[in-house]
Amino acid sequence: MKTSVINSTQTSGQAYGATDKEIESSKANQATIAYRLLKQDIINGAYQPGDKLLMSHLKSHYEIGAGPMREALSQLVADRLVTAISQRGFRVAEMSEEELTDIYDARAHLEALITGLAVERGDEDWEAEVLGEAHKLSRVNEVNTPEEMLEIWDSRHKSFHQSIVNGCGSSKLLELRASLLDQAERYRQLWLKQTVFSQNALEEKRQEHAELVDALLNRDKARAAELMYHHILSPIAIIKERLPG
Amino acid sequence: MKTSVINSTQTSGQAYGATDKEIESSKANQATIAYRLLKQDIINGAYQPGDKLLMSHLKSHYEIGAGPMREALSQLVADRLVTAISQRGFRVAEMSEEELTDIYDARAHLEALITGLAVERGDEDWEAEVLGEAHKLSRVNEVNTPEEMLEIWDSRHKSFHQSIVNGCGSSKLLELRASLLDQAERYRQLWLKQTVFSQNALEEKRQEHAELVDALLNRDKARAAELMYHHILSPIAIIKERLPG
DNA sequence: TTATTTAAAAATATCTACATTTTTTACTAA
DNA sequence: TTAGTAAAAAATGTAGATATTTTTAAATAA
């Protein structure tokens, strides 16, 4: 068997963002490998919205056969990152202001709902976890490159929010949230660059997070939900400016 | 090309429950056909929870090759109706009281949220639609067989609820709702038989629906959301009784 | 000429049949 | 029993065949 560089690299290292979708068995099959790589490349903008995903290119570029590649693509269709037309292949899903609004509206309402549940249902471990993650996020300072800064801040910011919603006690709601987050990811990237490299913007976020933590630990459900709702919606304006088209 | 009976039947008739996932092009490919058939069979109980989905059986039974069949199966894994273990194939997802509680808890919160939005955002057309569907549902009477009764009542009941949530103006939230509904479907079937064939239960539902319509048309957001929340949760007790194991 | 239709060719998507790898089962010997 | 091993079954992947769409070019009509 021909072992490609890509394959061996992938299968050896445990995937970072392994969603609960593929808990079982770390040795992934070709379709799973293709799914991860392609998803990452779409989110990171290696392919532009509307780009045709040519089977011949995908096959050679990822060194994966047509069968497994189709499997990956049709999963990405379910994730709304790719669109398919029968007999005409696959394309990277378009981005639009309408979709941006739709996704963020849904995210804000869902995240507020989940936050409210977390306030009701979260235990002391949850409180500790939130506090810890908030602390780590507030201490993103000693970094070398701007790229590193962006990566670290984003990672800790995500962990902070994840720690909050983890208190909700509903794995189904967390799955739905994860699905929306995936769909928002390409839009979020536009906001991220703007925010992380602006001291003003960062300070504003720091403030919002502090208020959020305060409401959470004081078990003020209504206020926490309200703060979260607006916190989620706040990037929309920035993203609209930077949205191509 | 060999055209199987299954294939020709499927491709000719427009599929009923075509989710927006595959809007484009009615002439579905083999993977889509397999997905629809298999999903229906799992929901209808043709395969039991935990059953192994043997490739050799699936191939011969649906007259579809391994490639497209894998594609369909991995979509069903994303839908949580099937589980996969790498190199060990696919199984029908197990059912459990824990999952039942999880799904219905999430559904109740989400449906209440969406209902609240519908009250805020729904226009007159929405009101009219809700009223119309409520009327149709209340008039499920002149039917022949019990099976027909079940089918018609379920269909109209679903349409009634769909007409309510359609007012929310968020296609993303509606997609999430549809996903949960799919996951709930096998549990719902257990409740449905109990409910449709009991005059008491039907009357109770009729009452709840009437209250719901009243709250909706009076634009009483809080009451509508509250009623919806409990309406969704109400089947849990019945389902728990009938849940195998 | 310019636009439109038609026909052939090329490119592409999709499927099937077969090959390979992995797991499971059955059997044997300690 | 238990461990080990060979055979069978099953899952997964590949290559090539087939069907469909798109492109190109030629032919026709305005």
Offer a quick outline of the entry.
Chain A has two domains: 5-92, Arc Repressor Mutant, subunit A (Orthogonal Bundle), CATH 1.10.10; 97-242, Four Helix Bundle (Hemerythrin (Met), subunit A), CATH 1.20.120.530. A three-stranded antiparallel β-sheet of chain A has the order 1-3-2. Helix content of chain A is 69%, strand content 4%.
Provide the descriptors you would attach to this structure in a database record.
DNA-binding; mainly alpha; disordered N terminus; 2 domains; Four Helix Bundle (Hemerythrin (Met), subunit A); 69% helix; homodimer
Topology:
Two copies of one chain form a homodimer.
Chain A: H1 5-12, H2 30-43, E1 52-53, H3 55-62, H4 66-78, E2 82-85, E3 89-92, H5 97-121, H6 124-138, H7 146-165, H8 171-196, H9 199-217, H10 221-233, H11 236-242
Antiparallel strand pairs in A: 1-3, 2-3
Helix pairs in contact in A: 2-4, 5-8, 5-10, 6-7, 6-9, 7-8, 8-11, 9-10
Chain A binds a DNA duplex (30 and 30 nucleotides) through helix 4.
- Residue share in helix of chain A: 55-70%
User: Which secondary-structure class do the elements of chain A indicate?
Assistant: mainly alpha
Q: At the third CATH level, what is the topology name of the largest domain in chain A?
A: Four Helix Bundle (Hemerythrin (Met), subunit A)
The most extensive interface, with participating residues per chain, is: A-B, 38 and 37 residues
- Give, in order, the helices and strands of chain A: HHEHHEEHHHHHHH
Give the radius of gyration of chain A: 19 Å
Q: Helical region count of chain A?
A: 11
Question: Mind telling me which CATH architecture of the largest domain in chain A this is?
Answer: Up-down Bundle
Strand order of the largest sheet of chain A: 1-3-2
